[in-house]
Design a protein that fits this description.
- The chain is built from 6 helices and 5 strands; from the N terminus they run βαβααβαβαβα.
- A 5-stranded parallel sheet has the order 2-1-3-4-5, with helices on both faces.
- The chain is α/β, with parallel strands linked by helices.
- 49% of the residues lie in helices and 16% in strands.
- It has a domain of 101 residues: Rossmann fold (3-Layer(aba) Sandwich), CATH 3.40.50.450.
Length: 149
């Protein structure tokens, strides 16, 4: 069995790389959003033309990025959504809701400080992890039936 895993959420830490390195050798393919913050913010105006108002600048970028996000989440078997400590990731919450609406297997990744704020998001998930290694352990178990250790 091959699983397609979409890695959504915060882009300021190396959690994606941790998961991909830990899952090496497993029958997984990974995808995710553009993680270059500047490129993600400016893609709309860089491709479609400048905007005088920040709202329209951001709107163009969000629409262009949504093409990749929708495709990645739609094609995924498992969607992992990471909420980091430093910034509020409203886009990550939207991705989690979109994945849940599509009936995707959803794994949420965040620290204990976010438990209350994300209780509804967590309730839609099949698993809530605090560390990237736990996500790897979940994926390994799903593919092989083997427990960590």
């Amino acid at each position: 069995m091959t699983l397609k895993v979409y890695l959504s959420g915060e882009i300021h830490t190396d959690w994606r790389e941790e998961i991909m390195a830990g899952a090496e050798g497993l029958d997984l393919t990974f995808s995710g959003p553009v993680t270059d913050h500047g490129a993600s913010d400016d893609c709309g105006v860089a491709i479609l033309g400048a905007e005088d108002q920040k709202y329209w600048h951001d709107h163009k970028g969000a629409m262009v990025n949504a093409i990749r996000t929708r495709k990645g989440i739609s094609d995924a078997d498992v969607v992992v959504v990471r909420f980091g400590d430093k910034y509020k990731q409203w886009n990550a919450a939207f991705d989690a809701g979109y994945a849940a609406a599509l009936g995707k297997s959803l794994v949420i990744l965040h620290g204990p400080d976010h438990q209350h704020a994300l209780k509804e998001v967590d309730a839609a998930a099949l698993a809530v992890a605090e560390e990237p290694r736990q996500v790897v352990d979940i994926l390994r178990y799903v593919l092989t039936g083997k427990l960590p250790g």
